[in-house]
Design a protein that fits this description.
single chain; about 150 residues; alpha+beta; Alpha-Beta Plaits; 4-stranded antiparallel beta sheet; two-stranded antiparallel ribbon; 4 helices; 6 strands
């Protein structure tokens, strides 16, 4: 089962305050533990919403709204993707989140990621094959160095 740990934004992350050396070290230690346990698949912090945009579609037409966005509680500051055997195991990992983050006052959200089998018959064999090809391509692309860097 895959889960996303969502690190909710707060006033500091939205102000662009960079983490301290001690928080970076604590997060690196936590991430290394998850990597060594084989559960962490991906994760990154996000720039504040002032550097982002929302795209709202109405009648199929996009409207772009530049950040920042007022409701901090609705924003995310980062994410971690993990793969575990159960929601209980995911929660055990989340409970180990470094206390240094936001001086121990951080809000996290745990959400399960849909898997192909969750879609039942709606994911036809043809669509399943296309999805598998796409995932394989993404994995191969991730393994290759970025030609633009």
């Amino acid at each position: 089962m895959r889960f996303m740990i969502i690190r909710k934004a707060d006033q500091e992350t939205e102000a662009g305050v960079m983490p301290s050396e001690s928080l970076i070290a604590a997060m690196m230690k936590f991430n290394e533990e998850m990597v060594q346990a084989g559960v962490m698949k991906d994760g990154d912090g996000l720039h504040p919403s002032s550097k982002g945009a929302r795209i709202k579609f109405s009648g199929g037409k996009p409207t772009v709204i530049d950040g920042p966005f007022a409701e901090t509680k609705e924003l995310i500051a980062g994410f971690t993707m993990i793969q575990v055997k159960s929601k209980a195991e995911a929660l055990e990992w989340v409970k180990r989140w470094p206390a240094e983050d936001a001086n121990g006052n951080v809000e996290l959200e745990l959400r399960q990621v849909f898997e192909a089998e969750d879609f039942g018959d709606a994911l036809t064999p043809e669509l399943r094959e296309a999805e598998e090809r796409m995932r394989e391509h993404l994995q191969n692309s991730a393994a290759q160095p970025d030609a633009k860097s």
